[in-house]
Structure formats: C-alpha cells, structure tokens
Amino acid sequence: MTDSFDMFIETEIPQNDVIISRTDLKGVITYANDTFAEISDYTIDELIGKPHNILRHPDMPKSAFADLWATIKAGNIWQGYVKNLRKDRGYYWVYAEVSGVYKDGEVVEYKSIRSWVPKEKRRQMQKIYDKMRFEDGENVRCVSYIPADLYNKLLTLSDNDKVCGDTILKELVKKI
Ligand SMILES: Cc1cc2nc3c(=O)[nH]c(=O)nc-3n(C[C@H](O)[C@H](O)[C@H](O)COP(=O)(O)O)c2cc1C
Description:
This protein is α+β, with helices and mostly antiparallel strands. It contains 6 helices and 5 strands, in the order ββαααβββααα.
C-alpha cells in the first residue's frame, strides 16, 4: 500500500508558458512540447504514443470529457478547465483549448493549448467538479486522517501490503 502524499502536491504551469499537445483522431498523443513533459513529470518519449487519458485525474467528471469530444467532433473549439494527473500522482490545473487540425478541409488530428489558471478559479472549479461527480453518481473524494493503530489493523485485512487504499476500503466495507 502506498502512503505517498504526492497525490496532494500541486504543480503550477509558469504564467508565461503553455502546454501544447497534438493527438490522432482517437486521442493518442502524437506531439508534446517540453513544458508538457516538465509539468506532467513524464518524458516526451513516454508521452508520445500514449492515450491522452493517462493524465486523467479522478477528480474530473466524465461529462467534461464527453462534452470535449462532442465539441471537437462537431468541428468546434472546446474551452474549459482541466485538473490533470502527473506521473508521480501529483496534479496540475490548466485552462485548455482543444480543436481540430485541418488539412484540405479534413480534420487530421486534434490539438490542445493549455495555460495557467488563477488560484481562485482552481478552487471554484474543484467545487464545481466535486458537485458534478456527486450529482452524476460518480466517485466521491473522501480524505481522512485515522489513528496509526487503526491504519495498521486495516492493513492486516488485506492479503499483502501492496494493495491500494481502494482495496482496503472495500475489505473494510465488507466487514461492516
Ligand atoms: C487534443 C486533446 C487533448 C486532451 N487533453 C486532455 C488532458 O489534458 N487531460 C485529460 O484528462 N484528457 C484530455 N483529453 C481527453 C482524453 O482523450 C480522454 O477523453 C479523457 O482523459 C477521459 O478519459 P476516458 O475517455 O478514457 O474516460 C484530450 C483529448 C484531446 C483530443
């Protein structure tokens, strides 16, 4: 089981920089700039060829991406705020504009340009997305501090010490 707190650590895009990526029509990354690699904690080589959802943060509601895909497939520009997951499980917020790349009038790829988000906007979007996930019956974020002895007891409920928090929670719910 991991007790890493990286998941709570935020990285900020420099205000004078942008993250740029392109994908094929299925959302597989075909181009990433240096800032994308730096902020996401991946190397450019690790990003190319991977589906864009490797960045998908569990705090993002499903409907945000459904809206993104419907918008760009209809030939429009999607604009919105996205919380992304870093390779080290930390996170970063972006304001994103996603749209098609056209050749001879045909869409051949998609591109995304992402920039810094002011702190107040990040707080606002976190609350909005928490509410959307709750109302849509998706996962609810639940963070808690528990005494070390209870934590150790929970660990003994699992078969080995490599299971994730989710598995322990499910075991616990079964016992209750
Ligand atoms: C050009 C482009 C950029 C995208 N950027 C992101 C991104 O930064 N983060 C993200 O989670 N999904 C991004 N997506 C959407 C993903 O493809 C995917 O739909 C999303 O992560 C949700 O994953 P799922 O479709 O497997 O549920 C992007 C899609 C496109 C076409």
